[in-house]
């Protein structure tokens, strides 16, 4: 039996990416706070974000936060909760300025102000033309945000528990009361009692095979909440980023197109002119990804297997590429052996971002149903669905989301912890985690984690990707159920206590299987096409029946019930989405 | 010891792509079972696009689940998988197998306490990083909007902002291997990032820390660090610039 250790804090934050550390900076300034992360903070996937963070600073041309809000709502195909989008776009300006004051080295204009560039779906005056709104640090903006937030956590003496895997949430009397974590180094179990818990665990892109996501993005936070019987919102909406390196899925920022890069098919045609005549290559990601997939399906793909399209940067000055896009051009050189100065880069859509997640309100409080919150429980960033992204997130709005709602979550959790009494933590709250660990360590099953995971990723890529049908989703659902049956006999070959990553991968696979099922069931029920969810058998948006959020609940027996939640509309009526 | 396992066809290669057999010799250390490190060789069929990390994932997935290493982003930006590959520090996710010989030797990075297989204790490394005050220090009223910084001033520290704290440089440094107190190149790189930032007002206190006997003066200009950096940072040059700033007390 593993040793069990106990800790007590006012607030615990789970995850140390952008949202978690932004929350930590607020919370730890007010109350006793601990951050639990399954990585070292600087390994978090915020660091892989490239292109920028939009805010209507208007440093280089006219702009305002209302235009940003409109773009966000339209970009999300009107499934965005408009109150949340207003909050995000209004607070974006201070969020960027705060980061600059914390030390973030933004690129500068000739006048020494924060420079801004164009990005997909961000427009002037409600769609007239692309606008320069994205604040950036070359093509490593996420890296600089992650570093800057970590640096400020060091400055502020934030307490971290690194390589601690949170595997369960403690709820007591309907309130958050802490979390149970597994310490990678020792195999010990830790119970963290707390008045408030902030979830900032990121997404679950590893349900797909072709993904820009890190190996560690296994949806643990969503999975934990799900198993507690709490709902997940809009899980069928997954973003496929248009420009992953073909065959590998490694992200090439939209900034490449923001700087003037052009997508071409096998015959060199700038095909986006046909799909989005006004803003062409800078249309939102769902539209570009579908257009690319369509070019390939209709036989205009490039390469020996005609299975990708080309991102052409060859007309850009080398100095511009070096100054603005150094990392992604190096990725093309390193991983595909392609020289972007002189050759177009093979690209294809890659699973990138979960629009759905743990439902929250604009205070980052987690919802237990359409209206009521779980007192003391907060979520921010990709794990959450607030919903500022609706059915399709605009580029740069994730870095914005983590800063705005991470900050809000940190403040709200600390304020709550300042006045709330501690919910009683019943004895033995760790028993479920202990039992799971013991069962896996004692497993004599023969099914490898890697085999089940790979089979899951294959069926998701095949059946639940850019194009979906009732038939393909049914196939995915059947495959997932079969894999869940195999998972019962999953093998863990490492029986040790120290750094047992074999064990943790098995546990993470359990979360992936659960979340893939929720995604597919939500997608099967949504008989329309909207944003990132495209059903070939229902190719149009259906506002009459589906202008609503999906709320999925897990029943006691493991089955899933779907319910719906109205979209918050303030000033924008749904319109046809043209670019 | 050689272990060979067939990779199930469905798992990776969907098209008939030519694979190449590679022998991966790994320095293993599992103190719960064996107090001494030992070598183990695996055979893997590598795809043309595989990086060394893919080989490790393949071994862990299909041959020996107990093989332990850190990894996350798998494309050279998170800094998890620094290791010694054929004798030099590299990120496993940035080394293409097609550029390597048929036998690849993999060891943990040196100079940090070994925990298990390729996993080392990173705490001393981060301790050194934290000790140089790696954050913007300013006094007085902050500006109402952003600080103004010219493009030229921004350019001065651009190179050192690229650091991902992977420890490849620090653990390639012979001085770091022998002198447990030396801050190491990564900490100095991160000090450079602030010392040469025109917005920062902490230069004096940071230089004082680096002037310590375990500070920049221990650097012997071996250039191992520059050679090891997966981000292409001119590490040795950054250290030299810090030395110069100390000598002339001017940045």
Descriptive account of the structure:
The complex is a heterodimer of chains A (579) and B (251). With 579 residues, chain A is α/β, with parallel strands linked by helices. In chain A, 35% of the residues lie in helices and 21% in strands. Chain A contains 16 helices and 20 strands. Chain A has helices at 18-27, 65-75, 82-102, 141-156, 220-227, 255-258, 272-275, 285-297, 318-324, 326-336, 397-419, 431-442, 449-463, 470-487, 501-525, 543-546; strands spanning 4-14, 33-37, 53-54, 116-124, 129-135, 159-162, 164-172, 175-183, 189-199, 232-233, 238-245, 262-264, 309-312, 345-354, 358-359, 365-367, 373-379, 384-385, 548-554, 560-566. In chain A, strands 1, 2, 6, 7, 8, 9, 16 and 17 form an 8-stranded mixed beta sheet that branches. In chain A, helix 2 crosses helix 3 (82-102) and helix 13 (449-463) runs parallel beside helix 15 (501-525). The model of chain A has no long low-confidence stretch (mean pLDDT 97). Chain B is an alpha/beta fold. In chain B, 27% of the residues lie in helices and 16% in strands. Chain B has helices at 52-62, 123-131, 151-156, 174-178, 185-195, 203-210, 224-228, 235-248; strands at 2-4, 20-28, 38-46, 82-85, 88-91, 103-107, 114-116, 119-120. In chain B, the strands form 2 sheets. Chain B has a 6-stranded mixed beta sheet with strand order 1-3-2-6-4-5, with helices on one face. In chain B, strands 7-8 form a two-stranded antiparallel sheet. In chain B, a hairpin with a 2-residue loop joins strand 4 and strand 5. In chain B, helix 5 packs antiparallel against helix 6 and helix 5 (185-195) crosses helix 8. The longest helix of chain B is centred in the C-terminal third of the chain and has 14 residues, at 235-248. Residues 1-14 of chain B have low confidence and may be disordered. At the A-B interface, helix 3, helix 4, helix 10, helix 13 and helix 15 of A face helix 1 and helix 3 of B.
């Amino acid at each position: 039996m593993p040793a069990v250790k106990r800790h007590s804090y006012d607030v615990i934050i789970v995850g140390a990416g952008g949202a978690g550390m932004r929350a930590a900076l607020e919370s730890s300034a007010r109350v006793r706070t601990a951050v639990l992360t399954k990585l070292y903070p600087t390994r978090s996937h915020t660091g892989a974000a490239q292109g920028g963070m939009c805010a209507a600073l208007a440093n280089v041309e006219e702009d305002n936060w209302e235009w940003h809000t409109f773009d966000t709502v339209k970009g999300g195909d009107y499934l965005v909760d408009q109150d949340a989008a207003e909050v995000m776009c209004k607070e974006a300006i201070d969020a960027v300025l705060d980061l600059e004051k914390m030390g973030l080295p933004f690129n500068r204009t000739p006048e020494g102000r924060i420079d801004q560039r164009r990005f997909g779906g961000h427009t002037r005056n409600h769609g007239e033309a692309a606008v320069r709104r994205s604040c950036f640090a070359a093509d490593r903006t996420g890296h600089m945000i992650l570093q800057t937030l970590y640096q400020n956590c060091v400055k502020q003496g934030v307490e971290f528990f690194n390589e601690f895997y949170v595997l369960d949430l403690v709820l007591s009397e309907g309130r958050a009361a802490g979390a149970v974590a597994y310490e990678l180094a020792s195999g010990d179990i830790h119970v963290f009692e707390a008045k408030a818990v902030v979830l900032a665990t990121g997404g679950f892109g590893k349900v797909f095979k072709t993904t820009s996501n890190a190996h560690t993005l296994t949806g643990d936070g969503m999975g934990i909440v799900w198993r507690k019987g709490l709902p997940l919102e809009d899980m069928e909406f997954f973003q496929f980023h248009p420009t992953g390196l073909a065959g590998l899925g490694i992200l090439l920022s939209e900034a490449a197109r923001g700087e003037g890069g052009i997508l071409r098919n096998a015959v060199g045609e700038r095909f986006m002119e046909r799909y989005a005549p006004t803003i062409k290559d800078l249309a939102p990601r769902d539209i570009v990804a579908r257009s690319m997939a369509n070019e390939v399906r209709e036989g205009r793909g490039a390469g020996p297997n005609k299975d990708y399209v080309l991102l052409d940067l060859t007309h850009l000055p080398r100095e511009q590429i070096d100054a603005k896009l150094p990392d992604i051009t190096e990725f093309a050189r390193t991983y595909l052996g392609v020289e972007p100065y002189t050759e177009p880069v093979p690209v294809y859509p890659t699973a990138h971002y979960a629009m759905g997640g743990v439902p929250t309100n604009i205070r980052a409080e987690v919802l237990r149903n359409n209206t009521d919150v779980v007192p003391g429980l907060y979520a921010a960033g990709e794990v959450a669905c607030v919903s500022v992204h609706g059915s399709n997130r605009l580029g740069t709005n994730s870095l914005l989301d983590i800063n705005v709602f991470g900050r809000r979550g940190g403040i709200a959790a600390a304020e709550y912890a300042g006045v709330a009494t501690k919910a009683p933590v019943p004895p033995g709250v760790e028993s479920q985690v202990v039992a799971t660990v013991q069962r896996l360590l004692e497993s004599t099953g023969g099914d490898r984690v890697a085999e089940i995971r790979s089979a899951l990723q294959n069926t998701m890529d095949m059946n639940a990707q850019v194009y979906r049908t009732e038939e393909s989703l049914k196939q995915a659902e059947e495959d997932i159920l079969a894999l869940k049956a195999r998972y019962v006999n999953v093998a863990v070959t490492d029986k040790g206590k120290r750094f047992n990553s074999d064990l943790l991968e098995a546990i993470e696979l359990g979360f992936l299987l659960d979340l893939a099922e929720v995604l597919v069931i939500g997608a099967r029920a949504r008989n329309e096409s909207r944003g990132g969810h495209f059903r070939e058998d229902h190719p149009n948006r259906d506002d009459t029946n589906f202008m609503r959020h999906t709320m999925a609940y897990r029943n006691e027996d493991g089955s899933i019930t779907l319910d719906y939640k109205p979209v918050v509309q303030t000033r924008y009526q749904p319109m046809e989405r043209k670019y | 010891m050689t272990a060979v396992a067939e990779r199930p066809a469905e798992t990776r290669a969907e098209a008939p792509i030519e694979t190449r057999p590679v022998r991966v010799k790994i320095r293993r250390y599992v103190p719960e079972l064996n107090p001494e490190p030992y070598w183990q060789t695996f055979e893997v069929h590598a795809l043309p696009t595989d990086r060394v990390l893919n080989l490790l994932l393949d071994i862990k997935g299909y041959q020996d689940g107990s093989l332990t290493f850190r990894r996350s982003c798998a494309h050279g930006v998170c800094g998890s998988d620094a290791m010694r590959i054929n004798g030099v520090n590299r990120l496993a996710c940035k080394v293409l197998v097609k550029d390597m010989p048929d036998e690849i030797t993999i060891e943990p990075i040196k100079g940090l306490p070994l925990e298990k297989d390729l996993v080392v204790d990173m705490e001393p490394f981060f301790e050194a990083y934290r000790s140089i005050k790696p954050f913007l220090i300013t006094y007085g009223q902050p500006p109402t909007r952003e600080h103004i910084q010219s493009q030229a001033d921004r350019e001065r520290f651009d190179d050192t902002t690229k650091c991902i704290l992977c420890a490849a440089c620090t653990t390639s440094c012979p001085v770091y291997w022998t002198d447990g107190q030396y801050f190491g190149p990564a900490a100095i790189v991160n000090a450079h990032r602030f010392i040469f930032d025109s917005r920062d007002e902490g230069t004096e206190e940071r230089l004082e820390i680096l002037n310590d006997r375990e500070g920049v003066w221990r650097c012997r200009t071996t250039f191992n660090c520059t050679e090891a950096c997966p981000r292409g940072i001119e590490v040795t040059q950054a250290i030299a610039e810090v030395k110069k700033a100390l000598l002339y007390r001017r940045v």
